[in-house]
Structures are given as structure tokens and as C-alpha cells.
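Record type: monomer structure entry
Structure origin: computed from sequence
Chain ID: A
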Amino acid sequence: MIKLAIIDVDGTITDSSRRISESAITAIRMAQENGKIISLVSGNVIPVMYALQIYIGIRHEVFAENGGVMYYQNKIEKFFDREKTERFLDHVAGMSSVRGIFTNVWRYSSMAFEMEKADIEKVTAESVRWNLDLTDSSFSWHVLNKGQNKGFALRKLMEIHDLRGEEILVVGDSKNDISMFTEGVNRATMRNGDSELKNLSDYVSSKGDGESIPDIFHKFSLI
């Protein structure tokens, strides 16, 4: 039986324009009323995750920066540092089209940026040289410390709530969600999800974007 659902935000409870699906919000609230634990795990920043928690009505932990930071009950817990990722961003911005995005002012552990496709290979090679990881959320690029990913958030939530893999459902849409799609947990994506996630998933909804959440929750008996 599923006790915890870990859900990505952009492209998973939203559409491609980042507008939140009302049906996704309704499904999350219904699942919580059924006693399920719902956690949001995103590449976005703590202020955004705090607002989502408050206005959707999430009752448990939320993670920002691809698992690098957790917020719960007026406490921010930082698991990684931003010093190296910030230096990396400054470095690659001086040698490529890389430009940091506005929300970096609120980041605790990672940096987010945009770049032209022609620079992806060069910037990726630099991240390897710096022993850092790059991930593409489809909305922006993120440079992360080694070990910082949504799989880290998954393991932290398993520890906090003392749960086994078979009691957990993970839902995402893009490559930066892959680290959550580990063997042993229940995995789902949507019609427009990344092809690699579809190959890893136990269920692919026929619905797209945030409209898939009620369908996925019904499939796994959360609602």
C-alpha cells in the first residue's frame, strides 16, 4: 500500500507554462484526507516551495533545489553548500553563453542558469572537471554538488517516515527526476514525460502535465 507520494512540480503538477493544474491540487488534498503523505520535490527555491506548501495545503516536508534543501514547520535544513556551485557558474559564464537566472538570489546549495545549445557540451565537460553535476529540468539548467539530487530527497523521506520502497510512489516528467525513479519504489509519469522516465515507469498516464495526477493517484489507490 502506498503511504507516501513524492511529486515533482514544474511540468508535473503544472502545464508547460507553469500554471498549476486545479485537478492536481484537488487530488493532492484528497490523498491527504485519505491519510497519505504528500511531498513536493523541485529544482525551484525555498520561497516558492514554502508558498506551494501553504497555498496547496501540503502537510509534510517539501524539498527545493533538487533535494539540496528541505523546509518543514518553519525550519530550513540545508544538506549541501552553494560556494562551489556559485564559483562554477561565475567560471562558465565567462567562457560561454551561460547566464544565471533571477531565483539564484534565494538558493542555498545550487545554481540555475540558461545557455545556448551550442555550449552544452563545453559546459558539461567543465562540470565533470569541477566534480559537479548538471541536470536539465526542461525549464532551466542546474549545477549541483555531487550527491545532490531528488534521489537524495527520496532517501531522506524514507528515513524520516520509516518507509520501504514499495510504500512510496514517485511522479515526475523530466530528466532531473530520474534519480527518484529507483528500483523498489512505484514510478509514474505522464503522456508528455521524458522518454527515459517512461521506460523506467510502472505506469504512464494517458493524461498530460498536471492533469495526469488524478489519474495516477487513482491507479495507485491514493484516492
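Annotation 1: The chain has a mean pLDDT of 96.
Annotation 2: The CA atoms of residues 85 and 170 lie 27 Å apart.
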